[in-house]
Amino acid sequence: MENELHDHRPQTSDTKPNTDHADALIRENRRITIKELGAMLSISVGSVEDIMKYHLQYRKVNAWWVPCTLMDVNKMVQMQVASCLLQQFEDEGDAFLKSTVTTDETWVHYFIPESQQSSREWRHTSSPKPKRARRSRSAGKVMATFFWDWQGVIHVDFLTDARTVNAAYYSDLLATDVKEKIRSKWKRGGTGSLPSRQCTPPYGQNNGNPPEIKMEPSDASAVQS
Predict the structure, then answer these.
(1) CA 39 to CA 73: how far, in whole Å?
(2) In the 8-state DSSP scheme, what is residue 205?
């Protein structure tokens, strides 16, 4: 079977050499643009798009956002901590979950406008739509640190006075405000406790070896960082 003779222009852009060259350029620079590829291959943008879509089957995607990138030693420490917590859960069951206190930080703006969803109203189809001025979040904001257990929020700390969230900040917070809130909760008849966690010096201060994580039973008389 052969193609019939025709007077159309021969295929000069969508060819295997151009496809291979485009593939090599993309592998060298994953962020290269369609226009840059077209200029380097001396072909049109439409031809580059056809090569990318139908031959190489590439598509441009956004990077997956993560809170932070961890080094191998950080991943090892997290795995050791997770293994210790899992083992403690297997030993104690639900009692361990009820003795766990979790913390997290978030930015709190001084003013947060009403959302589009919360401003919705029930109206008849013939009624005019309500109007509201467009407003944005305030530039001023403060960092809030939350501590909570299985029953709810235990303590909220707002980062003021030019303080910084670091190990010293958490150590002071756990030994003072959070400790007192947990004791007050026990006096009111609440349950749960904050398990003490002891770690060896950080990596680099332990003769070059990764730190060993040791978990100890909960101590109702003290809260240790």
Answers:
(1) 44
(2) S
Tell me if 88 sits within 8 A of 215, measured CB to CB: yes
Q: 13 with 44: CB under 8 angstroms? A: yes
How do residues 118-177 score in pLDDT, each as one tens digit? 777 777 778 787 777 666 666 678 889 999 888 889 999 988 777 788 888 888 888 888
Place of tokens 């917590």: 85
Q: Are residues 48 and 77 in the same domain?
A: no
Residue 164 and residue 86 share a domain: yes
Radius of gyration of the chain (CA): 30
What is the Cα–Cα distance from 153 to 172, expressed in whole angstroms? 19
Closest CA to 43 of 11, 6, 67: 11
Question: Could you tell me where the DSSP H helices lie in the chain?
Answer: 16-28, 34-41, 45-50, 72-92, 94-98, 167-173, 179-187
Measure the CA–CA gap between 127 and 140, rounded to whole angstroms: 38
* Residues of the domain holding 34: 16-55
Give yes or no for a contact between 77 and 211, defined as CB atoms under 8 angstroms apart: yes
**Stated pTM of the model:** 0.46
- Check: CB of residue 191 under 8 Å from CB of residue 98: yes
